[in-house]
């Protein structure tokens, strides 16, 4: 995720298209290393992102499936990029079995009880390395179930100073603070690329 100096993850229009080409390049690398990319229906509709490794679009490298997370029976905005090439058919994940929900050709439906259950069902499809690309609601759902192993954060040199900033994680009641271990911090021009890893159970920095 990318965040401004004053903690905003979206601009006044609720969008986040203000990262640099270096930030986009690094996102492409993360996508190329993941088995699947997870994102909410709302983020797709607000940002309409291309969730593929854009560096290799025309090199026939098989892009990774997108898993669209939803909670309600809201329909999907099927003209969004993720439902079309170069994205391969993906998965729509929702808590209820929405038989009437129209899916693009080749797309699958997965029903989940919670994110742990969803991760198990994706692992059964050999989708182990999951790249969660937000937004804050989804990040919090994974955090709540202790499923966040790594946080990649781009600190953008912007200040929006808007009312009601949305942060990296949607507030979760009574969640005890979670401490992460700073694995690396790289500066490129005015952006900082931070990599945090979940601490091991004994509180020590993770091995490796
Ligand atoms: N800066 C960045 O790097 C970055 C990255 C990604 C997104 N964003 C920004 O984040 C904002 C969108 O935030 P958001 O994606 O968190 O969406 P949101 O606007 O907070 O809406 C919540 C989304 O999460 C789903 N949801 C809610 N409760 C859920 C639950 N208990 N289980 C499963 N799904 C649940 C909803 O499902 P329904 O669709 O069924 O309502 C909806 O799609 C946008 O402004 C976007 O620009 C920023």
Classification by helices and strands: alpha/beta
Number of helices: 4
> How many individual domains?
1
Q: What summary fits the major beta sheet? A: 5 strands, parallel
In short:
With 208 residues, the chain is α/β, with parallel strands linked by helices.
Please, could you describe this protein's structure?
The chain is 19% helix and 23% strand. The chain is built from four helices and nine strands; from the N terminus they run βαβαβββαβαβββ. The chain has helices spanning 21-33, 41-47, 115-124, 136-144; strands spanning 2-4, 36-40, 66-69, 91-94, 108-111, 130-132, 150-156, 180-188, 191-198. A five-stranded parallel β-sheet has the order 5-4-3-2-6. A four-stranded mixed β-sheet has the order 1-7-9-8, with no helix packed on it. It is globular, with a radius of gyration of 17 Å. 26% of the residues are buried. The mean pLDDT is 90. The structure holds NADP nicotinamide-adenine-dinucleotide phosphate.
What key attributes describe this structure?
single chain, five-stranded parallel β-sheet, 19% helix, globular, binds NADP nicotinamide-adenine-dinucleotide phosphate
């Amino acid at each position: 995720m990318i965040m401004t100096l004053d903690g905003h993850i979206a601009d006044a229009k609720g969008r986040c298209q203000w990262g640099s080409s270096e930030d986009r390049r690094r996102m492409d690398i993360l996508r190329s290393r993941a088995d699947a990319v997870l994102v909410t229906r709302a983020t797709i509709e607000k940002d309409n992102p291309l969730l593929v490794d854009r560096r290799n679009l025309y090199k026939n490298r098989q892009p990774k499936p997108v898993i669209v997370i939803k909670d309600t029976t809201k329909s999907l905005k099927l003209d969004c990029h993720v439902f079309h090439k170069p994205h391969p058919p993906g998965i729509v994940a929702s808590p209820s079995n929405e038989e009437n929900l129209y899916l693009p050709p080749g797309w699958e439906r997965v029903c989940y009880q919670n994110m742990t259950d969803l991760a198990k069902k994706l692992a059964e499809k050999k989708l182990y390395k999951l790249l969660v690309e937000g937004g804050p609601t989804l990040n919090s759902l994974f955090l709540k179930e202790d499923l966040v192993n790594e946080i990649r954060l781009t600190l953008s040199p912007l200040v929006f100073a808007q009312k009601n900033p949305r942060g990296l994680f949607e507030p979760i009641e009574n969640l005890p603070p979670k401490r992460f271990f700073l694995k690396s911090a790289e500066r490129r021009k005015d952006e900082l690329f931070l990599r945090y890893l979940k601490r091991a159970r004994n509180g020590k920095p993770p091995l490796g």
